[in-house]
Amino acid sequence: MVVVLKVIHIPSSCLRKVVVIVRLSSSQRQFLLQATQRYAAKIELASEYLASRSLSVDEANIFHLGVVDDPVPGHEAYKGRLAIPYITPSGVVDIRFRGMNGEDPKYLGLVGSKTTIFNTQACFVADKYICVTEGEFDCIMMSVKTIHPTIGIPGANNWKPHYNKILDDFDVVIVLADGDAAGLEFGKKISRELGNVNIISMPEGEDVNSMMTKVGSKWVDERIRECITIGQ
What we know:
2 domains
């Protein structure tokens, strides 16, 4: 199976919305691309895990998720994990690895990598509003189950000051916060940084993925539409 990553061409008129700089050499980018393609070719190995998260293999393919079955050199520690590539208009800039069988820690990152926004292309297609989730899976769920443009931040501690410039361009930023103390702090942190934030807190102990799995996307969709109306 050959996996081809689509190159996203961004009109120059849209570039004002996103300034994400990830400094990688051409060889580093090529290495990450090759790893992503190798792992994506094995995504079928994660079909049961994806189903438990209400995602199909076809939906996972949209984000080029994969399984580390045959690790590239240096990725041996990630064997058996789900590979989540961070793909920007310039290519693959990072990969995060999630355990699928209760591993601790749940997530592992590449040594020396710098966190960035997941699904940056949503910033280019969004117009007056954009949604923000804590983590990649919630972002993926929003992207494949709804029409709402969504980006993911891998944790409140990974919020970067320059993200303010990216999101300040939108009329409304809707933070979909997990239903716990950390999720609430995530929403509050972004709200302190920006003046255009509405927070939608998930019920206690829930996140976007679990809510959509239990009740479908309508619950989230209705609350987002309320925020959009308020922001008009």
